[in-house]
Amino acid sequence: MAVARRELERIRALLEQHSRGLTISELARRLGLNRNTVARYLDVLLLSGQVEMIPVGSAKLFTLAKRIPMIQLFDIVSDGLVVLDRTRRVVQANRVFLRMSGLKEDDVLDRPVDQIAAPGLSEKDVLDRVADALDGNTSLVDMRALVDGTLVDLQVRVAPTILENAQPGVVVVIRDVTEVQRLKSLISDLQDLLRVAMDSVRTPICITDFESGEILFVNSAAASVQQCEVGGVCAQMEQGEAWEDEAKTQPGCRLFADPQQTLNMVDEIVRWTDGRLARLRALPGTPGTRAVDEDCYD
Fold first, then answer.
1. Does 74-180 match 195-293 in CATH topology?
2. pLDDT at 239 over 90
3. What is residue 94's three-state secondary structure?
4. CATH 1.10.10.10 fits 2-64, yes or no
């Protein structure tokens, strides 16, 4: 591997001196290497995004890539990154991972991954998925771990990759999702409060899927109406449709489709808790339960 890295660096250095690019033959002659060897190294550099190939007639011109190579992105991203070779030894680790684990680069490089004690990396669930990644499978593991003495939520992605020597490897991406989980919990609490607030008013409120009309939420005032329940369907009348004909073909509560009931209806497009578009309808001043029941059908 040391020889391969040295030759890869020689190719990069030579291409840096020739901004217009060089062919495989030119590189082989200047480096004193076999054409097939140079072609193999160039394939590695192409796969890792470090060089670009430009067809010129029947020849191929190689230049240094103008985009940022993947290796340089390692210390830009906010996730911890660890790269393993096919023998499960660590070949790369970024600064974020070293900071999370409290380890130094010499503590992890060229060591078997199962001999490294680090949050998000040494857990059995993650280690078990390294073999799957070498077979080409990507997996995701959610866990809680101690980082700097604090219990945090981690999301670990274990995925296959190609190393600089064109050999298969594994990349482990460790993301701290503690704040995300806290926000999800906060949003869930706010949603519960919103449901309680809507359920406490006497105005019938119904929230339906914008496309299908499936009922996603009804408060107590609307639930007292026959078939106004989550999972049912609210009749959605288009302007000019015959209400009586629609009532015969569309099952569910038609309270929110009755033109006589909906003159003062609040009808808004909202984003439901799962992210989809929804329709919120409320009927201020709706008659009592008995009158409402008469506006529903089987």
1. yes
2. no
3. coil
4. yes
Confidence at residue 290, expressed as pLDDT on a 0 to 100 scale: 36
Give this prediction's pTM: 0.52
Task: Kindly state the tokens that stand for 23.
Answer: 């062919």
Backbone φ and ψ of 147, nearest 5° = -125, 120
Our CA angle for 165, 119, 134, nearest 5°, is 35
CA distance 34 to 261: 85
Rounded Cα gap, residues 193 and 190, in angstroms: 5
User: CA-to-CA distance for 281 and 225, rounded, in angstroms?
Assistant: 15
Return phi, psi of residue 170, to 5°: -135, 135
121, two tokens: 């990396």
Q: Which fold has domain 195-293?
A: Beta-Lactamase (3.30.450)
CA distances from 266 to 195, 204, 215, 241, 292 (A): 17, 11, 16, 20, 17
Taken in order 133, 137, 140, 141, the sign of the CA dihedral is: negative
Instruction: Show me where the domains of the chain are located.
Output: 2-64, 74-180, 195-293
pLDDT tens digit string along 176-220? Answer: 998 888 877 877 777 777 778 887 888 888 888 888 878 888 888
Cβ-based neighbours of 153, under 8 Å, separated by 6 or more: 142, 143, 144, 176, 177, 178, 180, 181
Look up the CATH superfamily of 74-180: PAS domain (3.30.450.20)
pLDDT higher than 90, residue 156 = yes
- Report the alpha-carbon distance of residue 237 to residue 242 in Å, rounded: 8
Contact assessment for residue 114 and residue 136, using Cβ atoms and an 8 Å cutoff:
no
The pLDDT, as a whole number, for residue 243 is 34
